[in-house]
Write a structure and sequence with these properties.
about 0% strand; mainly alpha
Length: about 150
């Protein structure tokens, strides 16, 4: 049985780098990554992530802007790239640390500056067509009763 000696949170960029180097290592001895490692690497190659240098710079910027953030929270922000206040709020919904509104705005602004273009989400406001309310139905019912 395997025992966990230590745990260190890492960004997606770091995990991708580790898995790619392990993949190269194993190819030299004609072996492959394990199933879970292969799936993880495939996923990390598909999703938009920041490169290692940008991740590190962003982490420093986030810690300067919001010094109360913990390491795992900074990594969570860098990995999910929340670019609006609502997304930041959702990330911290189950955290003990509750960010103030101005802190959430700062985090979102920092992420907007570094978020890759292919990851940028197009936010457009959709107008909701008016839905008939219950009053309309009751008026129809009254008309039917009179007839």
């Amino acid at each position: 049985m395997l025992k966990t000696i230590s745990e260190t949170p890492v960004t997606f960029a770091e995990a991708k780098s580790v898995l790619e180097s392990k993949e190269k290592e194993l190819k030299n001895i004609e072996r492959e990554l394990g199933h879970e490692q292969r799936i993880t690497l495939e996923y990390l190659r598909v999703i938009p992530i920041l490169d290692k240098k940008t991740s590190d710079e962003t982490a420093k910027t986030l810690l300067e802007a919001v010094p109360t953030l913990k390491e795992h929270q900074v990594i969570m922000i860098i990995d999910t790239l929340p670019d609006c206040e609502e997304d930041v709020e959702v990330l911290f919904a189950k955290e003990r640390l509750k960010l103030e509104k101005d802190q959430m705005v700062k985090v979102a602004e920092i992420i907007k500056k570094v978020k890759p273009a292919k990851a940028a989400r197009k936010t457009e406001k959709k107008t909701i067509e008016s839905i008939p309310v219950a009053e309309d139905k009751t008026e129809d019912a009254k008309k039917e009763q009179k007839e």
